[in-house]
Write a structure and sequence with these properties.
It is built from three helices and no strands. It is mainly α. It starts with a helix and ends with a helix. The relative contact order is 0.11.
């Protein structure tokens, strides 16, 4: 299991809202742009779409 704190590179934030924005940006990157080996080198969003197309 990979934890957010182990993998994310969060910039220093002065407000809670800046922190939320940093975390949201990382989650967007992780789900939409970062290919993952255990998902056939696809992003999580692309892999999910791939599975849904295969079922249809």
């Amino acid at each position: 299991m990979i934890l957010l704190k182990d993998e994310a590179y969060i910039n220093e934030c002065k407000t809670f809202q800046e922190l939320i924005t940093e975390i949201d940006d990382y989650i967007d990157y992780y789900n939409n742009y970062r290919s993952q080996w255990n998902l056939k080198k696809m992003t999580p969003v692309r892999y999910r779409s791939h599975l849904l197309e295969a079922v249809s």
